[in-house]
Amino acid sequence: MxxxxxxxxxxxxxxxxxxxxxxxxxxKSDSMIQQLYDMLQEKxxxxxxxxxxxxxxxxxxxxxxxxxxxxxxxxxxxxLFLIDxxxxxxxxxxxxxFEAYREWAAAKILLxxxxxTAALSIxxxxxxxxxxxxxxxxxxxxxxxxxxxxxxxxxxxxKYKAYNQEYKLVQQKWMEESLAEELYLSLSVEFVNExxxxxxxxxxxxxxxxxxxxxxxxxxxxxxxxxxxxLEVSQFTVVNDYKQALExxxxxxxxxxxxxxxxxxxxxxFSYQRLICFLQLQQPEPxxxxxxxxxxYVTEGDFNWFKIQEVLTLLHMHNQxxxxxxxxxxxxxGHRNFESMPQNVQESWRIAEAYLYFLQSVxxxxxxxxxxFRPARFLNGIEVFSKDKKGMNIPILLLEILLKTIDGGxxxxxxxxxxxxxxxxxxxxxxxxxxxxxxxxxxxxYLPKNAFDKAIVLEKAAKDWQCLQQMPIPLASxxxxxxxxxxxxxxxxxxxxx
Length: 498
Hints:
single chain; globular; 498 residues; mainly alpha
């Protein structure tokens, strides 16, 4: 049902306006389509089985439901071409992208129906728009069609040569953009579900950037510089060198701000990267300024909005502004778009929510923010990041120790000591980037090893506690997402709770 949810969030009742999606004259069939659409808007059903049960008293395999579902999906997709995109928040290049591709679809249909004059007028207009907004792929398609038209239909040698020459130039730009995109995607795919530092990828990042650097100096197109400058940033972020990464982000933002149109996507991307740099460099004031800047280019509830909120959560947590962090976390987890986010994004927020529950349990929060949290359900429900052994699985295991220490699972934790010790030795002990996490897990394991006797634990942990304090976050090089709450704070809260 996720496909229907996503389309229904775009084709909202407000945007439909004059679009006649449901026809009362069609009778019961349209009435039931309306019911299913309302269920999606109200999110009153979680999946297809629930919708089929409510409408027909059967499961999703029932042929009547499948036909109804298909009819609604077809109508919603058709409505995408009719709704008023300009009123939906799209503007400048983003709006030009949607409008241009919609008109390009119309032009292709007209060409197929032999309405060449009507199609030509649309294509000539789109050629200007695609140049202005640097829609290279669309521009290439248009020039290809125009050179065919003026060669085989009009027989206009002058216009054919002009469009053919422009086609070859744009084709070269498109090839450079395509290469830059491929190199960036080959690098970024390694970090979507794994947050562990991967120093071995620095060579790949450097080589990829050097490959596209000549094109960056030759062309100034939107897509080329978006992917190319992300490769430039990646040289430093893969090894957590946030000082140099920040310099690249500042240059990229200046480049896209100078465009003759509003380049919202790259400005989002690089301002988000700048947010992370400020966070890791322990510069809280610029973080809030950068977040406000970034917020100008995002819509509440979209993917990038959730990513910005993650950084703000970490900032509040690291500065012990727990009430502010609680507001951000509960707002994100309770957002109507939360369930439509990718699994890895949802899990990041579930982990943050678990830390909030810990803070609440040890009295660091003045009121209850998390009311329906079950530690066992949380620990068993993380599927993606549980495989990220040198990344986001670390805060999950740390939470297991923290939660079982305060929530009556101490006997179970004692039984897990050997397994947790082996994990620390195998994945953390020799990892240069994870020494803060290694030290903190070592500190936590003193608890079950010494029957949670506070005095004995403090005595035996003294040396490692001192080592942790001598390695503050700015000196560490671990991925920024791992340490949701500073380990020193967690240790002091836990010891105070014993």
